[in-house]
Amino acid sequence: MRPEQRRIAEGILFTDQYQLSMAQLYFRHGLHEQTAQFDHFFRRNPDYGMHAAGYCVTAGLEWLLDWMEMVRFTDDDVAQLRMQRDRAGGQLFGDDFLAYLRATDGFAGLSLRAIPEGRVVHPNAPLTTVRGPLAYAQILETALLNQLNYQTLIATKAARIRDVSHAAPVLEFGLRRGQDRGANAGTRAALIGGADFTSNVGLSSTLGLAPKGTHAHALVQVFLALGYSELDAFKAYAEVYPDDCLLLVDTVDTLGSGLPNAIKVFEQLRAKGHRPVGIRLDSGDLAYLAIHAAMMLDQAGFPDTTIVLSSDLDELVIWQIQTQIGAEAAHAGADADAILKRLVYGVGTRLVTSHGEGSLGGVYKLVAMHERDEWRPAIKLADTAAKLTNPGLKQAWRIYDGRGRATADLVALEHERPDEQEQLCLRHPSDAGLQRQLTRSRLARIEPLLVDVWREGQRVGPRPTLEQMRERRRNDVEALDSGVRRLVNPHIYHVSLTQPLWELKQELLGRLRGGR
Amino acid sequence: MRPEQRRIAEGILFTDQYQLSMAQLYFRHGLHEQTAQFDHFFRRNPDYGMHAAGYCVTAGLEWLLDWMEMVRFTDDDVAQLRMQRDRAGGQLFGDDFLAYLRATDGFAGLSLRAIPEGRVVHPNAPLTTVRGPLAYAQILETALLNQLNYQTLIATKAARIRDVSHAAPVLEFGLRRGQDRGANAGTRAALIGGADFTSNVGLSSTLGLAPKGTHAHALVQVFLALGYSELDAFKAYAEVYPDDCLLLVDTVDTLGSGLPNAIKVFEQLRAKGHRPVGIRLDSGDLAYLAIHAAMMLDQAGFPDTTIVLSSDLDELVIWQIQTQIGAEAAHAGADADAILKRLVYGVGTRLVTSHGEGSLGGVYKLVAMHERDEWRPAIKLADTAAKLTNPGLKQAWRIYDGRGRATADLVALEHERPDEQEQLCLRHPSDAGLQRQLTRSRLARIEPLLVDVWREGQRVGPRPTLEQMRERRRNDVEALDSGVRRLVNPHIYHVSLTQPLWELKQELLGRLRGGR
């Protein structure tokens, strides 16, 4: 895309046509400046097929706010809209409406609350709430979902990979399999969710992080094509990077050629006072090769070198590799724990595309309209009870049990203070027969989750650092029950409604279903 | 991401660290300006699980060339690289190497050939070849794969959806489920591959295409929340868009409320001389609802209105809907063909994420190095014969049989002219026992596929229009055997090697495996 096209395609017209059609309708009916509230939430955790998530990690908010700060309807944008025609050949968007768009300051009139990036989040509790003029709250939908759906999906996958990798470093390698520049969003979300480093040079630079990566098969191929050997390629690498020597050993034959050659080079480095870093395995039976590579490296006196594994890894494959090493290492005469401790996982395609479930179905639903000094709650009917929305202005609370574990999220009306009540009633969101009573004094903590993030055209509070977002994720994942963290068939974490919200929902349902 | 960060993350540092590590190594060893040739290809068609592709449609090239035209190592980029440290605390990239990067004009030294966008392509034949200074050819890998992998994946999915939809319009709705601004690449690829229009306003504008979309559930919800009815919302819509009235009828109750209300509004429009466009169904049993909606619309005298279907559609779901309508329409007293003819398919999430197979494994492999006036072919060994690369400088040819059907792609060495040979020998790429003989005079046509697209820092020839790329796709899909186009279990299209290429491959294999 050419730069002048990019300005159009990545500005405020990065939206769906119906948002603008509706905005003009609101404008024509005098509703465009009426205050509305929308909730953003997702309905279920990713289900990867063989395995499923028991929680999500939210991400994408700061980039959304950056975009909101930057965009407004420019002359170019308005000119594009003015060219649109209706079926009768007339101008689809009227000049008065276009003048309104041009005169307003983008998303400055909106207020956003959100659960901060890096936090663990659950289905059906609002992750983001948007309040403000109906027209702009509507136009924001597409970009908000685009940013938060994808980054949350990837931060979630990364958190699972982080969890199964225990203390082992996780490197993100997915740039070549992402969507155009959107791959950078995947890298960022992966770093929030659990990847320690990435191969993505540009994005690392913007975060002050060291990008990771050594060499590809191409290096060895170049040397072979020129009549040299794999050993020559390794020597050349060690010469240029004597203190960062990590060699990819599977270009020719991993155990027959790559390992012996790497060890020769490591010995030369050691003789010169350098400390070799390790090897990378990118094909074949990674568990088997890791065991035998470890033994060969040990035997040669390099027990501290790392072994980087890559090639279509994800949380399930890593788990399988660990299990296989656990089962087979002793047979081969090796120490499984020592091998597992030297592993590094390089995760690319399956992380950046969220293998098994390539999208998060986050939605953005109207929950209230303000009219004549009063909020009028809105609900969206659906064919199944589970798809009904929760109406009204709300806050989400997290309840920690006596051990300090997160035991449920409670969605309440905005004015409620569940943290000040001694008895809490947790209603199932759709099943009238299910409820749970909790006694406040037996709980460790009740914490509100949504905080102000955008007001009057500006973000509220400082931009969080990567480390702060990671800290939130670590703390929140740590506070989950181990059953919820389980890779396969996780426990269902409860997201409940307060009694007043439950009653409001029933009342609206009755009214709507009665008064069709 | 802030704009100053975006300049870093989307410029020439949009690459993997190892490309730069290798580039510096080549620089240190005096290899950086030596001419190399890399091939880009993919190894297998997407397999979506329940169904699989029998071919791909290539896309992404023009955007890659736009990026190549724009980027080079700036002072800012070099400053970022200068900050990187090795493990001993020294500067990872030397000042001499950084000066070289800064002094060179980006990708100006490279030459690219490619199969033009929109064309049908097959596994293991080169889609793109890159020739030029080793350092820059290496650095290009990541961005090239990023652009071509994703857009080809989506153009392929769109072509399948196009094929199963026959003459029905296909609308792309996936912006909210793509990866940040990368979603625009998905929209573009979908339009090349088979979507007629998109809801994406910005991208449509850059292509001079009318974006499509009317209203969401939110419109009806706003009216309900304010004490009005679904009918009021529809009337409001018809008032603003009398000639573009397409109503979403499933917010409350599709057949019980949405359809009757839509029909009332349509009658009012008709009375005023307008022609209502149709309805959209976004939930429930779409086939059942389409049949009954069609009957209600017919009965009310609106047989020409369209019915837009959306909600997690993909090629398999569309096929199922068509089958169900075919089986059930007559029972309900309706004409299945007439219903199918008024359908429009809105495809979002499952198109932009390529549901079932979220990535295309395109790779970029060294195939030759130029030294002392001679090309030295390179090969990449692999644990399976199917993963071996094809060495040397090559051209891909498409062979059309007597009926004008594409019958095989033939990968040849660059100097070969299979179009001038009377007898063609097609060798299986890995199985020595398999070959096919073709007689030139019995064939309709033999066509070279790779054309020059980039030379000396500039694209070769004019930028193709969207319509030209679509035309290529239509012609190429049309020329495929119906078995190859089949949604489920497609025929395997043959990609063969010429005898000289086969011999070169065997020779290199023997040399490498012998001389490890």
Automatic annotation (TrEMBL), chains A, B:
Pfam families named in the record: NAPRTase_C, NAPRTase_N
Catalyzed reaction equations: 5-phospho-alpha-D-ribose 1-diphosphate + nicotinate + ATP + H2O = nicotinate beta-D-ribonucleotide + ADP + phosphate + diphosphate
UniProt modification remark: Transiently phosphorylated on a His residue during the reaction cycle. Phosphorylation strongly increases the affinity for substrates and increases the rate of nicotinate D-ribonucleotide production. Dephosphorylation regenerates the low-affinity form of the enzyme, leading to product release.
Keywords noted in UniProt: Glycosyltransferase, Ligase, Phosphoprotein, Pyridine nucleotide biosynthesis, Transferase
Pathway participation: Cofactor biosynthesis; NAD(+) biosynthesis; nicotinate D-ribonucleotide from nicotinate: step 1/1
Gene3D superfamilies: Aldolase class I, nicotinate phosphoribosyltransferase
Domain Nicotinate phosphoribosyltransferase N-terminal positions: 13-149
EC code: 6.3.4.21
Gene Ontology biological process terms, A to Z: NAD+ biosynthetic process via the salvage pathway
Record domain Nicotinate phosphoribosyltransferase C-terminal: where: 394-505
InterPro entries: Aldolase_TIM (IPR013785), NAPRTase_C (IPR041619), NAPRTase_N (IPR040727), Nic_PRibTrfase-Fam (IPR007229), Nic_PRibTrfase_pncB (IPR006405), Nicotinate_pribotase-like_C (IPR036068)
Function: Catalyzes the first step in the biosynthesis of NAD from nicotinic acid, the ATP-dependent synthesis of beta-nicotinate D-ribonucleotide from nicotinate and 5-phospho-D-ribose 1-phosphate.
Name of protein: Nicotinate phosphoribosyltransferase
Lineage, top ranks: Bacteria, Bacillati, Chloroflexota, Chloroflexia, Chloroflexales
